Amino acid sequence: MELGKLLYDGKAKQIYETENENEIIMHYKDDATAGNGVKHDQFAGKGILNHTISGIIFDMLEEAGIKTHLIKKLSDTDDLVKKVEIFPLEVIVRNITTGSFCRRTGCQEGLVLEEPIFEISYKNDEYGDPLINEDHAVAMSLCTREEYAKIKASTLKINELLKEFFLSLNLKLVDFKIEFGKTADGEILLADEISPDSCRLWDVNTNKKYDKDVFRQDIGDLIETYKAVLARMENK
Ligand code: C5P
């Protein structure tokens, strides 16, 4: 399929127009960024790895009844997806404490939470994606209260499905970020990607990190790490 006009050039993905106004093409780039773009590098093959990993996860979620934007894979790096208006929210779930939660609160690292923590941040680079709550999101017209409730319920279901999926790969789902969008008909769909860029994954036995923290913290080879995640999926 021909790529149409470039509509959006993001940190790790590009969005292209298609001939159908309700469909767009999502292209995975080889770029990795951290710290709101402060740290930036390119890794040959990263786009293919994240596209493949995210595709397997989205297919699993669809089979479990989660509605996603994915229509079909077009190539190693490109998907045809439903055009949605993305809610400007980073929707985050934490099962084990680490990352910005510990930095912000001083909470001990590595606590296994009895109940997942559900968080939203306002997706806005200029303000550093600030943590907000439901009232803020509604007051700022980022979503309605009803949409917030649907997003939260769907996210907690996705957390359960992802936790079980990764556990079957001997990986603990520490936390993750997802994004939702709304179609012209008002249907809320899981959008964007789910990959080691957007999840923290720790080996069940060793707590070794299998995610973008290896790049953020300079503690490992990103491509080898992501290949290892994909290998666990393919050997399942
Ligand atoms: O940095 P923080 O601890 O808030 O990240 C929580 C989770 O959300 C991590 O899995 C991280 O990879 C993901 N995240 C993301 N994109 C962001 C912020 C966080 O994918 N802009």
Keywords:
alpha+beta; 5-stranded antiparallel β-sheet; D-amino Acid Aminotransferase, Chain A, domain 1; Phosphorylase Kinase, domain 1; 236 residues; 32% strand; binds cytidine-5'-monophosphate; 30% helix; 2 domains; 7-stranded antiparallel β-sheet
Report on the architecture of this protein:
The chain is an alpha+beta fold and 236 residues long. The chain folds into two domains: 6-82, Phosphorylase Kinase, domain 1 (2-Layer Sandwich); 85-220, 2-Layer Sandwich (D-amino Acid Aminotransferase, Chain A, domain 1). Helices cover 30% and strands 32% of the residues. It contains six helices and 14 strands. The strands form three sheets. Strands 8, 9, 10, 11, 12, 13 and 14 form a seven-stranded antiparallel beta sheet that branches. The chain has a five-stranded antiparallel beta sheet with strand order 1-2-3-7-6. It has a two-stranded antiparallel sheet with strand order 4-5. A hairpin with a 5-residue loop joins strand 2 and strand 3. The two termini are 32 Å apart. Residues 90, 92, 99-101, 129, 175-177, 198-200, 212 line the site of cytidine-5'-monophosphate. Pathway: Purine metabolism; IMP biosynthesis via de novo pathway; 5-amino-1-(5-phospho-D-ribosyl)imidazole-4-carboxamide from 5-amino-1-(5-phospho-D-ribosyl)imidazole-4-carboxylate: step 1/2.
